[in-house]
UniProtKB/TrEMBL annotation:
One of its GO terms (biological process) is sulfur compound metabolic process. InterPro entries: Ig_E-set, MoCF_OxRdtse_dimer, Mopterin_OxRdtase_euk, OxRdtase_Mopterin-bd_dom, OxRdtase_Mopterin-bd_sf, Sulfite_DH_SoxC, TAT_signal. SUPFAM superfamilies: E set domains, Oxidoreductase molybdopterin-binding domain. The keyword Oxidoreductase applies. It comes from Bosea lupini. Residues 111-273 form the Oxidoreductase molybdopterin-binding domain. PROSITE patterns: TAT. Transmembrane segments: none annotated. Its cofactor is Mo-molybdopterin. This is Sulfur dehydrogenase subunit SoxC. CDD domains: bact_SoxC_Moco (cd02113). Pfam families: Mo-co_dimer (PF03404), Oxidored_molyb (PF00174). Residues 296-408 form the Moybdenum cofactor oxidoreductase dimerisation domain.
Length: 424
């Protein structure tokens, strides 16, 4: 018999401030249905929005969501980091549908705040083991052949708080360090070809122009394969938070490599052993050794609805929804269980299935009001099956922060409230 794990040492209620779960449960939430002989004033009486003229076309030169969507925002966890300039906030996955993350909701991770760069003054330098060191302006880059591709970016620290047990109560916080947008940019291999890479070149150093000057070493094979130097996301210029005017797109690999505000690429014959690949973004194993240069983001999935911030409201017909992704290819199948793993069914994948992109899945189900233990597991095009958290811990120990792609469990209670738990 499976049972939910006890809450960890941190109080989840404290964490959520009570605001999110308030109003959960079944009372008073039944769907209004037409009843003969009972007129509905929302239909029979003329409402204000039908009575008065609305705002004209010039009121919103750059559109924003309806005022009734105020809850759909990025959120941070105040006690997670010491300062907001070196911090992270999270994508509200439970409020979204389809596969594209709206630009204003993409999670942000900065090491030195958001650089405020005039594109006219931005330069990208390529030097080191090249025949001809080059400096590109944004105008130079915009005159080169460009490509459009949809890819997820996941921080290697996504789900990092969950290594030792269920912790944060909401998929925004457990899984929200991921976003998925369409990038427009120039293949890095074209820029490198202009500079002429020397035969002994093996690694590149990518460096940002922000106050942290964040840098990472990248193997040249990846750079010559599918890396884009992007200036647009979702059809418009990159947002300042996402690296305006230029960022690296490293499909399927950990978010830390996707250097924002990209200003310099040095070509070398070995990795630089930068801070972010020695003291950070390494995985400390139980025996004291560390895994290093663990670039790939392995297959992962999460049920976004229901979830702690999006409880079930109504018995009967319901839609379970979620996201799956793999840094090694496409999502082939997603399995979902409602009873803690006794029975699994194939989820219905809907919408486009792109390489190294978020993929949307659904299970349309009837809920009789019983407790549910919901899990999803992704299978990618290499045949890899998303592991359980226990399977991960057997190999990786419990020191880790990064690369936690274990199966998530949500416990839906009889009143619809939903909690982050582990079963075993
Ligand atoms: N690039 C620079 N220049 N500075 C940074 O702080 N953060 C990295 C990466 N690139 C960072 C950066 C990390 S750890 C991640 S996960 C991604 O950017 C986050 O990208 P996002 O802010 O678009 O979500
Ligand atoms: Co990161």
């Amino acid at each position: 018999m499976t049972s939910p794990a006890k809450p960890g040492p941190l109080s989840r209620r404290h964490f959520l401030g009570g605001a999110v779960v308030a109003g959960a449960g079944l009372a008073g939430t039944s769907i209004a249905r037409a009843e003969p002989g009972k007129p509905d004033p929302l239909i029979t009486e003329v409402q204000d929005w039908s009575r008065y003229l609305g705002e004209g076309v010039d009121k919103r030169p750059y559109g924003t969501p309806s005022r009734f969507e105020k809850n759909v925002i990025r959120r941070d966890v105040s006690w997670l980091t010491a300062s907001p300039e070196s911090s992270v906030n999270f994508t509200p996955l439970h409020e979204l549908d389809g596969i594209i993350t709206p630009s204003g909701l993409c999670f942000e991770r900065h090491h030195g705040g958001i650089a405020d760069i005039d594109p006219a003054n931005h330069r990208l330098m390529i030097h080191g083991l090249v025949d001809k060191p080059l400096v590109f302006t944004m105008e130079d880059i915009r005159r080169m052949p460009r490509q459009n591709r949809i890819h997820f970016l996941e921080c290697a620290a996504n789900s990092g708080m969950e290594w030792r047990g269920a912790q944060l109560n909401g998929c925004q916080f457990t899984h929200g360090m991921v976003h998925n947008v369409m990038y427009t940019g120039v293949p890095l291999k074209l820029l490198l070809a202009e500079a002429g890479v020397k035969a002994n070149a093996k690694w590149l150093l990518l460096e940002g122009a922000d106050s942290s000057g964040m840098n990472r070493s990248l193997p040249i094979e990846k750079a010559l394969d599918d890396v884009l130097i992007a200036f647009a996301m979702n059809g418009e210029a990159l947002r300042p938070e996402q690296g305006y005017p230029l960022r690296a797109v490293i499909p399927g690999w950990e978010g830390n490599l996707w250097v924002k505000w990209l200003r310099r690429i040095e070509v070398g014959d070995q990795p630089w052993q930068a801070r972010e690949e020695t003291s950070k973004y390494t995985d400390l194993l139980a025996d004291g050794r560390s895994r290093r240069f663990t670039f790939f983001m392995d297959a992962k999935s999460v049920v976004t609805n229901p979830s702690p911030q999006a409880p079930l409201k109504q018995k009967g017909r319901n839609v379970l929804s979620g996201l799956a992704w793999s840094g090694r290819g496409t999502i082939k199948r997603v399995d979902v269980t409602l009873d803690g793993g006794r029975n699994w069914q194939h989820a219905r994948i809907d919408g486009p299935v792109f390489d190294k992109s978020l993929t949307r899945f659904y299970v349309d189900f009837d809920w009789a009001g019983q407790d549910l233990l919901i899990q999803s597991r992704a299978i990618d095009s290499t045949g890899y099956l998303q592991p359980t958290k226990e399977e991960l811990r057997k190999i990786r120990g419990t020191n880790s922060i990064y690369h936690n792609n274990g199966i998530q469990t949500w416990h839906v209670k009889a009143n619809g409230e939903t909690e982050n738990v582990e079963i075993g």
